[in-house]
Design brief:
This protein is α+β, with helices and mostly antiparallel strands. It has five helices and 24 strands. Helices cover 15% and strands 34% of the residues. It comes from Streptomyces kurssanovii.
């Protein structure tokens, strides 16, 4: 664990709680603004987010001016009946992981912005626990987990927020069938969480585009039963996201788009867990090293990633071993097999 992170985690807890209350108050004010304009349910209208001016700096997760607020990770459903998503456009980092039957699920990380609703929310997986260790002690909101996994979640350094333990933070929608209709009220979730870490350095670097790379208009990432396509838009200067051949949109913020896309090749192996149907749950290794493809500014860069321990940063470097800078903005990280 690096010294800066250790010092950050050893900050006085009362100061951390005060900062948390200030951030939640700002976010709650943004959500209240939405509700005053008549936006209810899982589709609160045009996305409203806010950051406090009290402690603004540069986000460790996006490279943009932002509050270094508490870290909230939300497990989000991603099968076709779960779309369009709500609140996903406000995430700082969007991780995509393989789950049972070759499908995918999203783990979205929020800190600098918080929408009124996020979802649909689904169950946690074992891989989430290792992935989230680099964030210190984040809050993790999810709909539930199989009984054999619960002791591991309890022992992990996360502020676990399943629906059963924070019922006021969740709401069901009547516009789609269960289980694809559970949404999180993030300000209530963070209010229920204890000792949540603020955003800290997890190894990402942001800045001007590096030299080299190759022009790229479109790139598709395939899982056994899911695919993601990222198309470069010169007008918007973003990668437009498509899922399973359809444009990915949200109920509250329009088209999903990324500033940087990271295709991180890693080991995806069977775990000891199975779903209710008997399918084996994959385990995605996020400690180790391997190759990656980084997309930014309409170009593709070959890269390497390394994370020496679960508590350590994930570092992305170019062919010369130098840190590879991401484009400021939302980052998508797709964890795929080698």
């Amino acid at each position: 664990m690096n010294a800066r992170r250790r010092r950050g985690r050893e900050d006085d807890r009362s100061g951390r709680r005060a900062r948390k209350r200030a951030v939640i108050a700002a976010w709650t004010a943004a959500a209240l603004t939405v509700s005053l304009y008549g936006c209810t349910g899982p589709e609160p209208g045009p996305e409203e987010t806010s950051t406090s001016s009290a402690a603004r700096g540069t986000s460790y997760f996006t490279g943009l001016p932002a509050e270094q607020g508490p870290v909230l990770a939300v497990k989000i459903d991603n099968v076709r009946p779960a779309r369009p998503h709500t609140g996903l456009g406000s995430a700082d980092i969007v991780y995509v992981e393989q789950v049972e039957s070759g499908l995918s699920r999203i783990l979205a990380v929020f800190s600098s912005r918080l929408p009124p609703r996020i979802g649909p929310v689904r169950s946690a997986r074992e891989s989430d626990l290792e992935l989230l260790r680099q964030f210190g002690r984040p809050a993790l909101a999810y709909s539930g987990a199989q009984s054999a996994l619960r002791p591991l979640i309890k022992a992990a350094p996360v502020a676990a927020l399943p629906q059963g333990e924070a019922p006021d933070a969740f709401v069901r929608s009547g516009d789609r069938p269960a289980p694809h209709n559970l949404y999180l009220r993030p300000e209530r979730a963070l209010a229920a969480a204890r000792d949540v870490s603020d955003a800290s350095d997890i190894g990402m670097r942001f800045g001007a585009a590096p030299e080299g790379g190759r022009p790229l208009e479109e790139h598709t990432v395939r899982y056994p039963s899911a695919r993601y396509t990222f198309s470069w838009s010169p007008e918007q200067k973003r990668w437009l996201v498509a899922m399973d051949g359809s444009a990915a949109r949200t109920t509250d913020g329009g088209r999903l788009e990324a500033s940087t896309v990271v295709v991180q090749h890693t080991e995806v192996r069977p775990s000891t867990f199975r779903d209710r149907g008997g399918s084996v749950s994959p385990y995605t290794e996020t400690v180790g090293s391997g190759t990656a493809l980084v997309l930014r500014d309409g170009r593709a860069y070959d890269a390497r990633w390394q994370r020496t321990s679960a508590d350590g940063d994930t570092v992305f470097t170019d062919a010369s071993g130098e840190r590879l800078a991401f484009a400021p903005g939302q980052v998508w990280v797709l964890l795929t097999g080698r």
